[in-house]
Design a protein that fits this description.
Number of helices: 2
Number of domains: 1
Helix content: over 70%
Largest sheet: none
Strand content: under 5%
Structural class: mainly alpha
Number of strands: 0
């Protein structure tokens, strides 16, 4: 269980970083070309990045808690 949570947390952190990069790129495009057809792209990418980073950090924290507790139970 702890290994899965650590894997999930690392994956969510990677997705959060990717979405953060997309948000920065979308902001640069918005400043350069205007809002265009997708007018809320920066906000959506930023919200997705924050959610993924928060969930990823929480999953990593839980995975470490499970691993620490499991090692205490095994000894």
């Amino acid at each position: 269980m702890s290994g899965f949570m650590l894997f999930l947390g690392a994956g969510l952190l990677a997705v959060g970083l990717l979405l953060g990069g997309l948000a920065v790129q979308a902001l640069a495009d918005r400043l350069r070309f205007g809002s265009g057809l997708l007018f809320a792209d920066v906000e959506l990418f930023t919200l997705g990045a924050l959610a993924a980073l928060g969930l990823g950090a929480g999953a990593l924290w839980l995975g470490r808690k499970f691993r620490k507790r499991w090692s205490l139970l095994v000894e």
